[in-house]
């Protein structure tokens, strides 16, 4: 651990300073102790206080007010009434109010990014990107929405209309702005009211500020906090809900799918999968080094991270010669720690690959998974140390995890089949193309995958047999922005796909009998990716 006593957090970037500024900006959203819940257009100080902890240093961020099931049910019912009025609002008015919200969010951009750095440990560059992608992405929809609402899924002229009820949004903590707020604003633009739940692990302050700015412009948004087990019936099964958008792990996603089974509700369930790199007949290691470094952004805490490498045996030595130095050069630490004498400007913030994991318990879970794999026979290739991190003097570092890489995790270990959601990689060595494909398809469906090969035509033929929604050839694939489709194959996704026109189709009704693109119980329909 760094013992550099010159590191500190400048006063203007401290949690108290940032929250002081956003309280001044949207004071209506706050109680004396912290954010309220937004119900029927009013901020209400209801719920049971629950302390929120920063993964950066274990410090307290204040309290979240967690609602009970009855209050959440009432909030959904009120949102349904508001939805009906909004659905009848002219498109030009919807565009005007969404655009005004984007202007307000852009005005608060730096403080929203700093909130993300404190709440979920994003380094400055990554935090800014989360906010900026939300703004630029929704602006694209503002320009394109009219055409999207004027055609069916085949591209033929047809009028699309809002759903019968508001869209319920339950998202994970890792991308509060570019995934959750982005999706909500498009849902609103398409004529739907919105109900959103704050993640319990982080992002509640960021979402409070963003939704306060949205509500000020007259957008029908509801924001509630609480445990999923308490609020699930209200947010998933309430008859007033028109659709459910869920982003989270496969276990929770499976529970959500079970709750939806007999409702017939429109849904978009993004679940995890084990995203893989397959390496076959490849030689451009210099370019691959840059790809590997980029892959460690935000500690691989994203749904499109690549934690598994499936490597042709004859290339293992060359792969390791490229890969291990990258692990050794990864920079991590407190995202807001700067040397004494710095100006206090965000320009001085460190250029880290990642900060902490979302919590100390997640870091411990990763340690346990690594230990389990080693007990069952995995070979440790690289085990980084927190001593290489940059931290404040004496700070709590329990949520941090240095990079780890293992060879051949056995089938009995969780890491063989599950996404670790952290900076822990595994490498599998293969001799045949059949083995390559089998190991790339180990999790019964994934969101993304990639193949590194000098023979791109052959790689494209292999890609056709990889069970991932997007497969890159010598490049990373990601969720994408604007008109890029996004979904998953197998168990990584259930329901309608999103991205570009597919997101608008997912939250609107088209002609009777329309078959949306997506993974549904009765059919699977995939767009070009």
Rounded to the nearest angstrom, the radius of gyration is 23 Å
Number of helices: 15
- CATH H-level superfamily of the largest domain: Aldehyde Dehydrogenase, Chain A, domain 1
Total separate domains: 2
Poorly predicted regions: none
N-to-C CA distance: 44 Å
Beta-strand portion reads 15-25%
Any idea what the shape is? Answer: globular
Question: What would your notes on this structure say?
Answer:
This protein has 529 residues and is α/β, with parallel strands linked by helices. The protein has two domains: 256 residues, Aldehyde Dehydrogenase, Chain A, domain 1, CATH 3.40.605.10; 198 residues, 3-Layer(aba) Sandwich (Aldehyde Dehydrogenase, Chain A, domain 2), CATH 3.40.309. Helices cover 37% and strands 18% of the residues. The protein has 15 helices and 23 strands. It has an eight-stranded mixed sheet, with helices on both faces. Helix 7 links the parallel strand 8 and strand 9. 53% of the residues are buried. The model has no long low-confidence stretch (mean pLDDT 96).
